[in-house]
Amino acid sequence: MIEARGLTKRFGDTLAVDHLSFAVEPGRITGFLGPNGAGKTTTMRLILGLDHPTGGSVTVNGQRLRQLAWPMREVGALLDAKAVHGGRSAYNHLLCLAQTNSLPKRRVDEVLELVGLTAVVRKRTKGFSLGMGQRLGIAAALLGDPSILMFDEPVNGLDPEGILWIRNLMKALAAEGRTVFVSSHLMSEMENTAEHLIVIGRGRLIADCSTAEFIAANSQQSVRVSTPQRAELAAAATRAGATVRDDDGKLVVLGMSTAQVGDLAFENGIRLHELAPAQASLEEAFMELTASSVEFHAGLPLPDRKAEVA
Amino acid sequence: MTVTTTHEALVGGTVAHHPPGRAGFFGSVRSELTKIRSVRSTYWTLLALIGTCVGLGALFSWGQTERVLRIKAHAGDFQGIGQARTNALLASIHAQAASVSLFGLLIGQLVIIVLGALTITSEYSTGMIRTSLASMPRRGTFFAAKGVVFGAVALVVGEVTSFLAFFAGQAILSSQHVSTTLSAPDVLRTVVGGGLFLAVCGLLSFGLGAILRHTASVIATGVGLMFVVWILSNFLPSPPSGWFGQADIDKWIPFNAGSSIWQNQMNGVNPFSPWVGFGVFCAYAAAAIIAGLLLFQRRDA
Question: H or E element: which one contains A225?
């Protein structure tokens, strides 16, 4: 259980985290979602006590991290897979961490086996690939067998096999009743893994709800229709109060259910070749919600983005 | 790569949940020992330290034996120096035998400054500090364990270096019968003092490391403080006696204060007695360490 209350962090003129209050519950994967620069990493650094909050507080299992008797046995975190001394072997890296919390040496071997690094335990970590580094970071997080796990952008730069592995690992950890808090700016990733979402933009809380609720509440209902009588259907739907747009030769009707569109077509004698609900993705919901809170707008040379940037 | 993600493998393992007590100083000491012994830079730096100190000490001792040969060769010359003068010169060389063999410490201090700096700055340059503090968030404990482990390693290696340099130097000096032994007055203090000096140099640099956090700036500052200031001080004007002048400033220069424990009044400076001078040097190091600790606790990692 992670609890933030009015958590605030200011860097000079920038308010990186702005009065955030949320709770991350055990037994499920909680996604921490926000565009780049939204304050996700800063929030995680505040939870770990790496940064001192400007205001508010954050506790893990009811205590600040520095008050925990055995910090590694309660919280494990992967913030940055590169946060290791490259000249040290994987084994020694984990050993020096284990020793701070009086964890037995054989636990180091256990987690190395768990993440599949047994073949390279004596190798210096500077030769590790991104995926191996990520696995080492996860091994470090799992060392103390903690009840709370935090992963900051864990799938960044991983190959599909690695992504699947991490996804399954997180699910297994949550299924064991642990608190799993994972940040990402990839909505598709969260859609696949997280049951609950905490969404932030510009340091502020935008949403704290289940993933399903988030999609339902933040996306318009839409129906995809394929018909040889496009103009007629578009006119009928518009008369009925829906919005119609053209999508690659098909019509997308916003604001009507599939049943309503089907009935409308029947009543107007319009033939349909295809009628399907278009499920709004988390991506779309997210874009809609955070459109105003993206800190850095890229100056993409797309005609529809130009207006927005200007 | 076989990857296990079954429940059995994840749960429990060999971690006994919440044993009595809490993560504290001794666990951190074990961790820091693992850290310092598991990177190659430690061994390279320590080898460089021993090599520099023993090598330069031997070279300087050899230079002294050449001087002795010249003095002896000219002792009976018509244009040479008188016998009384010869004996006085030889006696002064003999009196400085211990300090001469430790001459390499002048450069060796720079090597231990590098190691002291790296102990703390490598945590920042590699990002390891974030991993370290997430596993041991009590920063005072972490800092103390790091300082104690580095200090102990620096002291042991410093003493080994100092004694090796001493014995190597004396072996060379003995060829002209101007060597000394540990049982002679002040010699044991000089040689032990050499090791203490190296250790405190390293700790001073450790403190600077916590303040500055960047390897290059710590080394530049450490070398500037120990070496450049010392060189510059030799060019200060000497005002008429009775004025506040060079000697009054000289003795406070970190190198002069610290080296008074292993230098035998070589250049007519060092008005501090050996232990007082060394005490002043320790105070400089303590100031750097305390400032470093306060900043370390306050700043974001």
Answer: strand A222-226
